[in-house]
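Could you help me review a protein record that somebody else here produced? My question to you is simply how this chain folds and whether the tokens agree. Thanks in advance; the entry in question is below:
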Amino acid sequence: MTAPDIPLIDIAAWRTGTPPQRAALAARLDTAMRDSGFFLVAGHGIERALMTEIRTAARKFFTLPTTVKQPYATTVGGRGWLATGVEANSYYGEAPDAAKPDLKETITAGRELSTGDPVLDAAWFPPNVWPAEVPELRDLVLDYTAQVRVLFHDLLEMCAVALGLEPDYFVSRAGRAAESININRYPPITVTGPAAAGQYRVGAHTDWGTLTILDREIGYGGLQVLTRDGHWADAPNVPGAFTVNIADMLARWTGDRWRSTRHRVLPPPAVAPDEDLISLICFYEIDMDLEIVPFDPPIGGGAHYPPVRAHDYMTERAKAASIA
């Protein structure tokens, strides 16, 4: 099995580097995007204490009785609480198996923004639904996502340089970008019971949009990435570093020069029956009214896709993941 190329990139070196240093970092990113579509980011400057506080607040909510959580229930693509059993991630084009939903529950929220377009605002910027039982969660999450948005813009700059584009190419197309955060709880096997054959905490899938920025708690039931030769490999972890992956819309934009890679989260392990993990998953996009036209070679990889509006593409993908 060939190990996936998932390097550690110091974003602080990008922020302060000379043009040659930045070019070298962008080239390293390009190599990883072609191979695994994943990389790790250190030097981002976001304090670990903030992530710890979010997890503490989220656990207060997750441990509430279902009857208390139910008024906050939503569907895939909405904002609020996603109960276990309403989402089954699967690869694009494959129907999700309703008999094997993802073994997780989620608090989902998004950017608080009005674009002035009622269709886009209804779809991508609806009101957040914050649990009254955990009032501290709102400010913690909005602080966190605002800080991660700064990192996202730095990564968009690096992506543009890696493709030979002007540094602000993607950032200038993300001023009114949608974004969301999933606070995923992966309950222990004592709560979920043994997984069915082929059932996971998160089923094998690719992400839909631009870049995903993940803060992980590490355990036995961890993240795996599908290698180019078709094997599953454990994703590396560096304490304090984010895991970042390219998503389908950006891969499409590059004409598949870059690879949006299938990944999954392993089911709760019997060897650690009390393992109860929380991941903070930020999905950052570009402007939803933007038409995505794949780059021609030599910037693009040569795959041909018809132009598609970001809103239409993402809406289709969200519908495909819902089984509720």
The longest strand covers residues 277-287.
